[in-house]
Amino acid sequence: MRHWILFYLSAVLFACQSSETSETTEEKVALSQYVDTENLIYQILTERENPILDSVINHPETFELQIFYTQIDRDSANQPSFTSHYYGIDTNNYFYPASTVKMPAAFLALEKLNELEVDGLTKYSTMLTDSASDGQTRVIEDTTSESGMPSVAHYIKKIFLVSDNDAFNRLYEFLGQEYLNDKLHEKGYDQLHIIHRLAIFNTPEQNRMTNPVSFYDDAKILYQQELMESSRDFLVPTQNVSKGVGFMRNDSLINEPKDFTTNNFIAARTLQDMLKAVLFPNAVPEDQRFNLTEDDYQFLYCYMSQLPSETTFPNYAADTTENYYDSYAKFFVFGDTKESLPKNIRIFNKIGMAYGYLTDNAYVVDFESNTEFLLTAVIYVNENQILNDGVYEYGEVGIPFLADLGRAIFEYELARERPHLPDLSKYQSTYDKDNEVM
């Protein structure tokens, strides 16, 4: 079976063309300072014959490359221990996190429901959103859900399955800007701030105010939350927040770097730490965990790993506006193929893609070979250094790089000796359409 996996992973690697590049003495000196040739990730990637990998690895500063790879070893009682390897991780170098901010919002929305302790209030309760301020919009139905009504559960499904922006915005409004940031900071995740909705051009003042929200059981009101307004300004807790040489604003080119000071931010290490806290809650300090029920954990494991083609509500296969292929929200390992994915390999993750930044934050599992690892990576692909112009090298460089990075680590893990094979049954789910346990 291991040979079949290696064959499959090799088969999906696309042939890539790349022109030879010359390096000046100064570039070589900078590269030698940036790259530790003893670094395990560097060794794994440079052993592969892939011009895209070579191009990125040889110019890591150009691509603002950050990789955080964590090996997982189990003892005889199946308890995990972790060994992390870093490449280019720099908490002082800002990158735009895009849709990765949706992951902690989903975790916290479940926690908030639990901590409200309202009788009958669950993640499946109908959630109606009102408007009470300029720029706010209402939600009174959701035709993509089985009930025809919105809920926290359905929003979370859409976030992990296809990275739905509106679903995140509604959870952001339920949480409120101040609560969302304060709760994460209290858990020790202070290398982040999440301060604005996505794909909506609200002002900072509008993003400080979040909509009234009500929860119902049929016609019975379970909980009501009035408009909330954050009392504080949250600024990016890092450096180097100006990017590029210009940016587009209202179809006009502004010839100066884009300032991300008032944009969302999450450090790469923090992304993986929060993912680890949900996948391995007993392996992190109690104050870093999310207050989730066992049903919440199983719900998250299901929809973080489920594919659009396996989903009944929403019925993504019938959606004519988007091509929701299996790897639509999975960059690692399979991001450069639109073919059906093998059912034994599951990726529990959240991606981000905007302004030339591509991010994936994932726990990768193969239930047949009992392979598991954590992998987080960021790459910046914006050759012209103009932001918000829609001209980025996502398909040519970024996604192929992340896909083969995932395959490289996967193949290394398949060959790596481990003292005990893991029991991964807790991560197996029954998915919506086929009801097969994987």
Largest beta sheet, briefly?
5 strands, antiparallel
Name given to the CATH homologous superfamily: DD-peptidase/beta-lactamase superfamily
CATH architecture assignment name: 3-Layer(aba) Sandwich
Low-confidence stretches at least 5 residues in length (pLDDT < 50)? 11-34
Mean pLDDT: 91
Strand order of the largest sheet: 2-1-16-15-14
Reading off the top of the CATH hierarchy, the class is best stated as Alpha Beta
Helix content: 25-40%
What string gives the helices and strands in order? HHHHEEHEHHHEHEEEEEEEEEHHEEEEH
Question: Which structural category fits the helices and strands?
Answer: alpha+beta
The Cα radius of gyration reads 22 Å
Strand percentage, roughly? 15-25%
CATH topology: Beta-lactamase
Number of helices: 12
The dominant shape is globular
Outline the structure in words.
The protein is 30% helix and 19% strand. With 438 residues, the protein is α+β, with helices and mostly antiparallel strands. The protein has a single domain (2-427), classed as DD-peptidase/beta-lactamase superfamily (Beta-lactamase, 3-Layer(aba) Sandwich), CATH 3.40.710. The strands form six sheets. A five-stranded antiparallel sheet has the order 2-1-16-15-14, with helices on both faces. Helix 6 packs across helix 7 and helix 6 (152-162) packs parallel to helix 11.
